[in-house]
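Provenance

Sequences were taken from public entries as deposited. Structures were produced by running a predictor on each sequence independently, with no templates supplied. The record for FAD dependent oxidoreductase from Pirellula staleyi is shown for reference.
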Amino acid sequence: MTASDTPPAASPSESTAPALATTIDGKNAYDTIIIGAGMSGLAAGIRLAYYDQKVCVLERHTTIGGLNSFYRLRGRDYDVGLHALTNFTPRGAKKGPLARLLRQLRFQWDDFALAPQIGSSIAFPGVQLKFNNDPALLEAEIAARFPHQKDHYQKLLGKIVDYDDLNQELFELSARTVLAETITDPLLIEMLLCPLMWYGNAREDDMDWGQFCIMFRSIFLEGMARPHAGVRLILKTLVKRFRELGGQLKLRSGVKRILTDGHRAVGVELENGEHLTARNILSSAGSVETMRMCDDVPRLAPDKAGQLSFCESISILAKEPKSLGHDRTIVFYNDSEKFHWRRPTSDLCDVRTGVVCSPNNFEYAASDAPLADGVVRITAIADFGRWQTLTPDEYRLAKLRWYDRLVASAVRFVPDYRSQVIDTDMFTPNTIRRFTWHDNGAVYGAPQKKLDGRTHLDGLFLCGTDQGYVGIIGSIMSGIGMANMHCLK
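Predicted structure for FAD dependent oxidoreductase:
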């Protein structure tokens, strides 16, 4: 049997203890309440439901997915968060987060229909580093472009492999400090930081060393892929399994407050006034946002929340990007030797750095039909505060203007595709706020992560972005890990 074909697991961690019995009685009483129907919340719900727990997932939005959701416009489906799924490993792999996910949730590899990237790059002025799902390519690129850094890069790899994921003290070290002790070329440091910050960093300017190691492994040592149908396939697969196992999913069910009894969380009050009780509560809403729900905690200072939000332009093309000379899956670009990673202070967006992604440029199976359209997506850092204050008319005009600016910035690093655009859309920090409910539309949540998921209350735990893991596989593994650690004792 393959890793994904194993019989139903029976232990919280991998598979040998008897299933947990539930004695919860009453319509509104649960073993576990999960706040948020994103990837981590749905994964936690599935894991717990396998053990006959009575589980309810609450979602204030009208749809599932959180940051990794999708919407439909003029007959087309648009992914909100997904550029690529990281932590990719090929069929049959026994190690790595993807393989463990399949075992823990009892999925088969084919359930997500993943297609690996063709190849991506990091583009700075005058230098480019290509990489794909084979770590040897990036190693060869560094040896060719930065020959004096070859041994230093090997030393860095050793530190990353040896890193302990659950050591909070090591996690919070400065990545820039550790890199400066290992890599002696400042430009190479900036180029390595660029994609890792773009795909999983809530801190401005610097990065937690632990987050750097997690993202390095997920992107450079494992790899990237995409389901042919986009994020919809993953979400539908998770929801279907959760409901098959008897889990309850309540949409339009925002949590007004988390109810406490002394030092323990005992339930929630919904915005409609309904009360639900539970032995445990897992919240994927974010640490600051979760604390605000607690009826024993005063409102936290706004500066505790993350500051980094995004705008993204979506261009529908009359031709596939490859026919225009653009064959990269993702291009992470920066227009100077110093990488810019900070909320804009003087405008709605900062177009000095960005991400160019084409969903067409993955190695889809021969049996897959070509994507209906050519697509190019451009992402830039944006200021939530400025976008939030625009009037409806100003907002519509700003979207048009910044679509043009984002594309103009990107075509400095990829072939100019503007003559082939047949339809467009653009989402902003306001969109991200609407889908995630994160303060400031912060894509990666708060800078301070809680690796063990614990809060000041017994029975209340964090999962998802602010537990420390990001990306689709990371979020799913966070939900599984926190369910195992705190709810399956």
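Residues 3-114+230-304+447-487 form a domain with the FAD/NAD(P)-binding domain fold (CATH 3.50.50.60).
The longest strand covers residues 275-283.
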